[in-house]
Amino acid sequence: MEVVDLTYEYMNFVSVCTHIDDQNEETDKIVRVREAWIKESMVKGLKVKVAVDDNGKPIGFAHCLPIELGTWGMSGKDLMTIPCLTRQYKRVYNREQGSGVGRALMKAVEAEAKKTKKGVAVLCYDNDFWFMPYAFFKKLGYKEVARQGNTVIVLKAWEKVDPPVMHKLNYKFKPTKGKVVVDVFWHPICSTSICEIQRVREVCAEYGDRVILNEYNCGVKDILEKHQTSRALFFNGKYKCWGYEAPRDGLRKEIEKALTQS
Ligand SMILES: CC(C)(COP(=O)(O)OP(=O)(O)OC[C@H]1O[C@@H](n2cnc3c(N)ncnc32)[C@H](O)[C@@H]1OP(=O)(O)O)[C@@H](O)C(=O)NCCC(=O)NCCS
User: Fold this and answer.
1) Regions in the chain scoring below 50 on pLDDT
2) Which residue, by CA, sits nearest to atom 7 of ligand 1?
3) Whose CA is nearest to atom 33 of ligand 1?
4) Contacts of residue 55, Cβ cutoff 8 Å, sequence gap at least 6
């Protein structure tokens, strides 16, 4: 296994977040949005590291995103962040551990960060296994510098640096009489978030002018910094999260409920 910089050959694997055997019409649209974000961000300084097995097959990847470009969940300076690091999704779902792929990707990220930054910061989650696991980063020498519930910022620094500050949602609902207002914060880095905004657009359109849809693209740094969130969904000011991508029927149910209360 080796870790290489992203080339066109591995773009699809990275854009579909490793789900290469699991593509359909909906994911094709998501991929186009995510791929455009990757390409635009690479021009500004994003690096993508890809783990490749001995047969040249991609088996994992990591994003190295300078914090100044705007990253998921935190703000700061002089740091590299990893908004996304993953092995092939089936390996993750099967809870396989100890492949060495995560460690190799992190080594490549840190080498990249050492060129221009004072350390690497990661927003991770103190859960039993899924989603940017805190225990993995801790094992690799990262230290907790901020926490809210099970959301943790960890840091490994080789020079003195201020730790990043965790985002705190800044959102104020503005009602419109007789209408359902749907406020969606989404980020083009994340397939789940892209899928969600696509479904929200589709479902809101079914209700015509009874629904007002306000979209906030948190891939735009000013919007991210102002609202301090990368993904959130509100129906008439009420927060709703399914964890996974919002299901169409669930969206309809929330809109119907809000319509009866408007
Ligand atoms: C985190 C991840 C890369 C680790 O994969 P891995 O194959 O275990 O990687 P490594 O073997 O290099 O891990 C290094 C060490 O950390 C340990 N480790 C990995 N995951 C761990 C966890 N959740 N808890 C505790 N230790 C963990 C490994 O067992 C290994 O220990 P060892 O050195 O004693 O063998 C993988 O589980 C993954 O991709 N998870 C999903 C991440 C995610 O949320 N991606 C989506 C982002 S948008």
Assistant:
1) none
2) 99
3) 98
4) none
